[in-house]
Fold:
Amino acid sequence: MHQALGEFLTGMGRVEFQMLLLMDFLNEAPIEALFAETTGRPFGEKIKSFKTWCDFGGVPDAQQPALQAIYKDLDDLLPKRNCLVHGETREGAFKGKPRQPYRVGLVKNNLEYLDEFDRGEHGPNIFDVGQVQAVSQLCRKILGAIADLRASFPVSDEPYQEEPDDPAAWPPA
Structure:
């Protein structure tokens, strides 16, 4: 279980970083400002900021389906991520299976969630090792989709030119 959770946390860190890089790729805002806007915020708020900045960045119509699929996968990831991050590891046996470790996620407004686990009630907040690995796989899917989206943008034939300090000197000669 601990290895699976470590792989999940590594995947989550990579997803958050790639979200930041895509926001930077699509917008002229400095990456430091984007980083400051998202740092220390809950993941759900980071997803909202990500969507806002990606929509503001003007993703072309041809790439919109890929972007919408990323949004959907992030929305699917959020409740699973919250259960894994805001939970604890317990041992239990369900449906005739031998005792094994489970990650039991906190259930909002339900202080009985651990007692429910101990009584053998298996809800959507309970993850075995395979289910934790499936969430890690979802992280890898999102990473691949973000990479594919970035790669789908045409590269400009125009050479990069440093922006002049004096706005009157724009565009450069």
